[in-house]
Amino acid sequence: RHTRLQGDWSSDVCSSDLEPYFKKDFCSDSTGYPITDEKKYNTYLLTQEEIRKFDCGLRGNSDYPEQQARETSKPLFIEVIEHVALGGKTLLLEVKSEKKEYELSQPSPKAFAKLVYNEAKLIPSDVTVYYMSFDPQILEELHQLDSSIRTVYLTYSPLKSVKKFLKEIQIQPTVLGMFYPTISKREVSYLAKQGI
Predict the structure, then answer these.
(1) Where are the beta strands (DSSP E) in 108-186?
(2) What is the DSSP secondary structure assignment for residue 102, as one 8-state letter?
């Protein structure tokens, strides 16, 4: 089973989210009605044939008003690799993962990391890939598979210090992705000294 992605593939830096559901802001169900409950349709439990019946493009996406509205389903990762000129670009691959969703809307961290890692082998070798996640366990499992991969530990709590964030993860991430207004020069200096 290949991983389904949605993302922005038009710039020098490509971003992609591995999401286990259909976004209500722009996706419609298999009968054409807008999604109202994102948790109702769990892509982890659906077949590829069932997923293809959902549309995530015709209604447009208010976050990307320049995108043309057109009928499209969530592509398989292999489809993205085959149809997008990724050569020489940087790919920011965000793995959506929540501890409370293990085995419900996603595999366990170990199985999920292995799935993502194996799919990523399809990426051309001249593409720089960063694996990003708010879930430290996913990044730790990816690191166990290949300690040379680039990891980005994403954080969204502006009141925590850099040191506290780094204590939450058992590996040294390549990048600590913090909300930029909360980062001080002192913290940037500290991270640089840590090789992050």
Answers:
(1) 128-133, 150-154, 175-177
(2) B
